[in-house]
Amino acid sequence: MTMLVFILWFANICFDTLGQIAFKYAAIAPDNRNGWYYWIDLFSNYWLWIGIGSYVAEFLLWLAFLSQVPLSQGILLGSINIIVLMLVGRVLFQEKLTRFRLAGMFCITIGVILVGAS
After folding, report:
1. 62, 56, 108: which is closest to 85 by C-alpha?
2. How far apart are CA 94 and CA 89, in angstroms?
3. Mean per-residue pLDDT of the chain
4. CB half-sphere exposure, 104, CA atoms < 13 A
5. Hey, which of 7, 46, 51, 97 would disulfide with 22, CB 3.0 to 4.6 Å?
6. Under a CB-based contact definition with an 8 Å cutoff, are residues 38 and 30 in contact?
7. Looking at residue 66, what is its pLDDT?
């Protein structure tokens, strides 16, 4: 993996993580959860717009990343986002990491290492 590919991959992970965090904060922020009021509150929440901006940046980074690696390798390397988001969910939102989730994270990590080394 060249330095450019690594930088694109890492930046993609960062923007994906930021986008998911922002969307989660936006989704849980509105106080009024009745009908259209929820959506009005949601669209006025700055976290939603941070998430959208992050996803635009991630999309552009993903295209640049895919221009440098084969699709099959890029998709597998991109799966590390699952692990990062599970860990962030644990830290920021107190989500549970069960034994099965930890085992899955371990398997994904080994797969990413093997694909990244090829």
Report:
1. 108
2. 6
3. 91
4. 13
5. 51
6. yes
7. 96
Q: Give yes or no for a contact between 103 and 65, defined as CB atoms under 8 angstroms apart.
A: no
What are the tens digits of pLDDT across the range 47-91?
A: 999 999 999 999 999 999 999 999 988 888 888 899 999 999 999
- Comparing C-alpha atoms, which of 17, 8, 115 is closest to residue 62? 8
Q: ∠ CA 59-66-85 to the nearest 5 degrees? A: 55
Extract the tokens encoding 34. Answer: 């009745």
Residue spans of the domains in the chain: they are 3-117
39/44 Cα distance (integer angstroms): 9
Per-position b or e across 16-26, b if 16+ CB within 10 A of its CB: bbbbbbbbbbb
